[in-house]
């Protein structure tokens, strides 16, 4: 099985063809439009097996799969102490494992934006993460940890580790968080502003069965988005 995640930077209807060479079984895309609310025929034909969430029909999170794969949206809570966190799309894959698609968002929170949203989501859904992949644009890295904050990137990584979930990139390339040698994002598509903020975390069965992990080449993908796709094969 091959799984890909990519923040398309909008307008997936004009960009999905660039993903075809990967022949991925499951594609997780952030900042994509809702296939049910577009008039773009080829996009809706391509998105024949999908789940999508979002407040805006033009920008949300989608999980797209080949026809033989059964996607089922899971009813996990997204409310933490009466506040709704976003954007998280949990789903079951063929009834065999769970996939949590992530696009960490500011959510207009003055204190718990981005990685804080995922930290909150973990507090209410950690017991669901047994045989699971957590995949997407975290908008986060250890380099932005703050000493007086208990919901830093490092705190989230440690909470994942406590339940047996690890970053497949860091496991595969034997790198530490905050010391990544391969960026996944270039701010304003500027080669002088590289960051590693997209991730695939997985339970130990995914760690053990990982065959390859690659990040799309900058020379190709930076013409299309400010993010590079991250592709895992199991």
Automatic annotation (TrEMBL):
It comes from the Bacteria. InterPro entries: Endo/exonu/phosph_ase_sf, Endo/exonuclease/phosphatase. GO terms for molecular function: exonuclease activity. Keywords: Exonuclease, Hydrolase, Nuclease. The keyword Nuclease applies. Residues 4-227 form the Endonuclease/exonuclease/phosphatase domain. This is Exonuclease III. It comes from Maribacter caenipelagi.
